[in-house]
From TrEMBL:
Signal peptide: none annotated. GO terms for cellular component: plasma membrane. It comes from Lampropedia cohaerens. Keywords: Cell membrane, Membrane, Transmembrane, Transmembrane helix, Transport. Its main location: membrane. This is ABC transmembrane type-1 domain-containing protein. It is found in: Cell membrane. Gene3D superfamilies: MetI-like. It is a multi-pass membrane protein.
């Protein structure tokens, strides 16, 4: 072996067996959780339905046919039609896209904002921490639906604004949780030792603090997705979310509630589909929590 190749091999990044081992242990623990497997399968089914909606739909989701309005489920319209003659099955499929996008995107944005604020507050302390946490207290002073409605009144209607409004309402819970975890972890001996050895603060955060708070962050994020989807549908139900004729489950339930006696499928089917997705997300989140909890990691639930 030449000297050059020896130097390049020595300088090449090595795979850390510890990280691989942790990921493998987590996957094995997750597989033991029946709730995670059942819930994950349900969520995966909805994701696939949303991705392949153009091929699975039997009609264009916004196509109106007043001659076929309010028809019950049949071979031509599997879930029936609404008051505008739109195919409910096709709208449910495309509505899954809106629901999942709102749920995951809003939680991701709220997570990023909350983690940044929580890290700064927990690490800086002093006046910086006081000022940031007073902002967080203001965000937490009202229920999330009320906060989202207030933000929507300022931002306006539309899917993107629903995501931004929900993300802003999620920043507070994430920031408070991350700050509390950072305050606890930064007092541990290995963090103090790294600081005394002159390790840069950014390295301490990446190598020592974040890996020790990632589990509660993931658990909180998993549970927030179902809340985000429910709140997004609630905003559309109240007329503050998605603009018609965009397919949205909350909007479909709102439009169908006036015909609940004559055409119960208009509101009933989107409501059942929404409930099934929420059950799947909650099961997956509970399984994720149990898999990451050392007290239940070896149990099959």
């Amino acid at each position: 072996m030449t000297t050059r190749s020896t130097i390049s091999l020595a300088g090449a990044p090595k795979r850390t067996p510890a990280a691989t081992s942790r990921a493998r242990r987590f996957w094995l623990a997750l597989r033991r959780q029946n709730k995670a497997m059942v819930g994950g399968s349900i969520v995966l089914l909805f994701i696939l339905a949303a991705l392949f909606a153009p091929w699975l739909a039997t009609h264009p989701p916004t196509e109106q046919d007043f001659m076929a309005a309010m028809q019950p489920p049949s071979a031509a319209h599997w879930f029936g039609t609404d008051s505008f003659g739109q195919d409910i099955y096709s709208r449910v499929l495309y509505g899954a896209r809106s629901a999942l996008w709102v749920g995951f995107a809003s939680v991701a944005l709220g997570l990023v904002g909350g983690v940044v604020i929580g890290l700064i507050a927990g690490l800086k302390g002093g006046r910086t921490e006081w000022a940031l946490m007073r902002v967080v207290d203001g965000l937490l002073a009202f229920p999330e639906l009320i906060m989202a409605m207030a933000f929507m009144a300022v931002l306006g209607l539309g899917v993107s604004n629903v995501i931004y409004a929900l993300a802003l309402s999620f920043v507070g819970p994430f920031a408070r949780m991350v700050r509390a975890d950072v305050l606890q972890v930064k007092q541990r001996p290995f963090v103090e030792a790294a600081r005394l050895m002159g390790v840069p603060p950014a390295t301490i955060v990446v190598r020592h603090i974040l890996p020790n708070i990632v589990s509660p962050i993931l658990i909180q994020a998993g549970m927030r997705v179902s809340i985000a989807i429910l709140l997004g549908s609630g905003l559309s139900f109240l007329g503050l979310g998605v603009v018609p004729p965009t397919p949205d489950w909350g909007l479909m339930i709102s439009e169908g509630r006036g015909f609940i006696m004559m055409a119960p499928w208009m509101a009933g089917i989107p409501g059942v589909v929404l409930a099934v997705l929420l059950v799947g997300l909650n099961l997956a989140a509970e399984g994720l929590r149990d898999a990451l909890d050392p007290r239940t990691r070896g149990q099959r639930v």
